[in-house]
Amino acid sequence: MSLRHGLLGLLVDGPASGYDLLKIFEQSLAFVWPATQSQLYGELNRLADDGLVVVSDEGQRRRKEYTITPAGRADLEHWLTDIEPNRIRRNDAMLRVFFLGTLEPVQAKAYLEREAAVHEAFEQLLIDQARDTNWEAGTFNRYGRLVIESGIRYAHTQGEWARWAAGEIDELGPPTKRSGAS
Amino acid sequence: MSLRHGLLGLLVDGPASGYDLLKIFEQSLAFVWPATQSQLYGELNRLADDGLVVVSDEGQRRRKEYTITPAGRADLEHWLTDIEPNRIRRNDAMLRVFFLGTLEPVQAKAYLEREAAVHEAFEQLLIDQARDTNWEAGTFNRYGRLVIESGIRYAHTQGEWARWAAGEIDELGPPTKRSGAS
DNA sequence: CATGTCATGTAATCCGTTACATGATTAC
DNA sequence: GTAATCATGTAACGGATTACATGACATG
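YS: structure for the whole thing
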């Protein structure tokens, strides 16, 4: 139900169309909660069915403008204060690390160095974005700054970790092959 | 396709049943890639259909022991070296931070302090687990140590971030309510 | 009048979760 | 003999991804 509440949260800042919300999603929420166009339009219709938003205006080009209702605001607040966040954090890149021992050490090391490079680049991207954003405008952006700071710290430690881990490979030595050889 | 390759990776360490693999998943891979019993048994059958594993033995109590095939090993290696990891990291807890401005500052602060506490507790849990594990046994565990170290660093920085963010709330001031009030 | 952008929707498929169902063996 | 553990499977449902489809308006 996170997409649903993501949309409600954006609508607190004012009425918007699905198209508007999609653009905002892509620029801001996408790194913590990506959503496709399909999913977003579907969810808006369901929110309207449930009375958490209303179509407050129909503009040109079939545009439907949605406004959050009091019920929607209540639901958002309930979500924020009473529902435990889902702590499940799937991490494809980290899953692979478990199995690096099945590769030659050179390749395992290459994998970790690539990870380091990716995180370092991403950190720089976030730093640039933080610098170029006007943090004054709107509640939403003010808290967005906290989120981007978390992203920067995350990318930084992951980069550091990957560099350290790449160094550890030499000490771990060659793979032990069970079942097949031995 | 991560569950699939997680299973293949575990089977490199030797033949195992679905039941065995489920236990290993729960203890080790679960924090980076949780899987349910249902999903796991289903995927093993699909792996067998695709010739990446074979049923090498049928034991008591309907137990089926799976062994990875050369094709399975090749597929695992291909995944590890040629396929870019999926970088999408959905984060329910962080999504909420975008919308903390819709709450009273006291509540926003409470949310972040709770986050800090959760991460600090989790960090301690991982530190204890790292201390109590025998890191000598098997390739798998040796790389598992790198993963757990990453978890410790992640939990640590997230905890630090949440404490810092809680402190920032005072400076961000009261929420600006658009659409409804104003 | 053709192309681009604004704007919304549907359908197929995949992955993951929850719940249910059942059988075989061991330990008390 | 009954409870616990080992062991595997199915069915229903929901969320996410991809692809496809279409319409309306603006610009050159």
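YS: worth flagging: The beta strands of chain A are 16-17, 53-58, 64-68.
IM: good catch. Also Chain A touches chain B through 71 residues (CB under 8 Å).
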